[in-house]
């Protein structure tokens, strides 16, 4: 195992909160922001379920975590830009709460754990904001909808609530070594889940049973949070892009599409594998699988820093068209089919998205108003920088709701052979998704989950 693969060594260090804060401050200054200002952020609040004394599920605000590495609710932070001082405010010890929940993290423990300069309790936030000698002449940078009512910025000359959020959204695109290590770890744990589902599929009675297999693998490896709701789709359910019911019985369907990934310390994995439940492809499902695997292989090979993602997405469509022509589903000229955007009927979503603290991570600059059907749902537009992590997830689907309007459109139906298409509805959908780190000269695949046909079949058949 190389140094890059040894995420455990990297994760022995601290989450690089100060490095992130410095990067965000530099962005703000480059955009004309006050170089003597202060950044202010709040953690997510703890809250109870409505009409209930049970705590609601907690999910830390990603922007707060990015500048702190702290997953505690009801906390605050400030970053003084000119002195590069990062201060964390954590809840004080409440004796009544200790009876039920045990001792919370102390100030001294937080100083040891987090990459910050100082730790205080939350009762000190307002006095800290008012105490700076220069604050009356400087700017506070915050996110307008994430400021508690009791917080006061009266001492600051200017209040800037528009720049901080886009600054963090942009900075989050390029990952630090520590962030990449977290994504590696999440990928490795999720891979165990995917392999265990492959092993269990032939005897499974329902999608829910296989969802349980995946979750068990994650939870017993201490990855108790999922990056998103798993998609466990047998047969034609795989034609629904975000199928989340996961409750159908398994009885004779050929393929299972599993889109599932855990998160580790707020960092996501996002992996999709499609495989034959019994270990045997049909002629139709194998043809589609081969096409999607080739789409993914060529698109990944095209990646390096500075590549135009829009062009890689277009490449995926060209390979899909070639594959669907070979299978007889499409007919006519490949160039004319591409021009008519007929392939969008079978591959309607974008090739991928940035990955980080969010599954669909920030900074992609999509254009959902694009009139071009082929690019409308592309979540990333423009060139990819080194240090970004992007998913490559081509797919081909046989969704009646999407395809049937194409069969009624004279421009489109001339390119589709309905008699051949009829044999493919039962395939449902095939998607294959890996998480790719962009490097200066190429890429690194962070996803070790098996996907080559012979390897997958071997696992399924035991």
Automatic annotation (TrEMBL):
Pfam families: AMP_N, Peptidase_M24. This is Xaa-Pro aminopeptidase. It is an enzyme of class 3 (hydrolase). Catalyzes the removal of a penultimate prolyl residue from the N-termini of peptides. It catalyses: Release of any N-terminal amino acid, including proline, that is linked to proline, even from a dipeptide or tripeptide. Its cofactor is Mn(2+). GO terms for molecular function: manganese ion binding; metalloaminopeptidase activity. Its EC number is 3.4.11.9. InterPro entries: Aminopep_P_N, Creatin/AminoP/Spt16_N, Creatinase/aminopeptidase-like, Pept_M24, X-Pro_dipept-like. GO terms for biological process: proteolysis. The keyword GTP-binding does not apply. SUPFAM superfamilies: Creatinase/aminopeptidase (SSF55920), Creatinase/prolidase N-terminal domain (SSF53092). The keyword Transcription regulation does not apply. Keywords: Aminopeptidase, Hydrolase, Manganese, Metal-binding, Metalloprotease, Protease. It comes from Massarina eburnea CBS 473.64. Residues 15-148 form the Aminopeptidase P N-terminal domain. Belongs to the peptidase M24B family.
């Amino acid at each position: 195992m190389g140094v890059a693969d040894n995420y455990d060594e990297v994760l022995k260090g601290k989450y690089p909160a100060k490095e992130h804060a410095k990067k965000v401050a530099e962005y703000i200054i480059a955009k004309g922001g006050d170089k003597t200002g202060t950044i202010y952020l709040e953690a997510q609040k703890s809250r109870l379920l409505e009409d209930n004394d049970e705590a609601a599920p907690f999910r830390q605000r990603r922007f707060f975590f990015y500048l702190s590495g702290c997953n505690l609710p009801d906390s605050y932070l400030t970053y003084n830009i000119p002195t590069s001082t990062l201060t964390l405010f954590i809840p004080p010890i409440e004796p009544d709460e200790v009876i039920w929940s045990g001792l919370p993290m102390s100030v001294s423990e937080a100083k040891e754990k987090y990459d910050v300069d100082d730790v205080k309790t939350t009762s000190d936030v307002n006095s800290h904001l008012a105490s700076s000698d220069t604050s009356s002449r400087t700017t506070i940078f915050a996110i307008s909808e994430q400021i508690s009512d009791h917080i006061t910025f009266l001492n600051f000359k200017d209040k800037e609530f528009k720049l901080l959020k886009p600054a963090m959204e942009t900075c989050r695109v390029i990952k630090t070594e520590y962030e990449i290590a977290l994504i590696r770890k999440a990928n490795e744990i999720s891979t165990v889940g995917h392999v265990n589902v492959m092993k269990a599929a032939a005897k499974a009675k329902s999608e829910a049973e296989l969802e349980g297999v995946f979750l068990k693998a994650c939870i017993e490896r201490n990855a108790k949070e999922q990056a998103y709701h798993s998609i466990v789709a047998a047969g034609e359910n795989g034609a629904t892009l975000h199928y989340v019911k996961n409750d159908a019985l398994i009885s004779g369907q050929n393929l299972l599409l599993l889109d599932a990934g855990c998160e580790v310390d707020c960092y996501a994995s996002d992996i999709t594998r499609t495989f034959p439940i019994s270990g045997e492809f049909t002629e139709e499902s194998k043809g589609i699988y081969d096409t999607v695997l080739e789409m993914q292989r060529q698109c990944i090979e095209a990646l390096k820093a500075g590549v135009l993602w829009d062009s890689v997405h277009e490449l995926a469509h060209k390979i899909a068209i070639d594959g669907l022509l070979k299978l007889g589903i499409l007919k006519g000229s490949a160039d004319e089919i591409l021009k008519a955007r007929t392939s969008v009927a079978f591959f309607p979503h974008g090739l991928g998205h940035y990955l980080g603290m969010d599954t669909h991570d920030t900074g992609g600059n999509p254009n959902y108003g694009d009139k071009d059907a082929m690019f409308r749902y592309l979540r990333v537009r423009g060139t990819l920088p080194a240090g970004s992590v992007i998913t490559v997830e081509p797919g081909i689907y046989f969704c009646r709701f999407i395809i049937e309007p194409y069969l009624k459109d004279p421009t489109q139906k001339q390119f589709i052979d309905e008699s051949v298409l009829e044999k493919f509805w039962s395939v449902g959908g095939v998607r294959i998704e890996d998480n790719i780190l962009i490097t200066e000269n190429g890429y690194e695949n962070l996803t070790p989950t098996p996907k080559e046909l012979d390897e997958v079949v071997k696992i399924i058949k035991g």
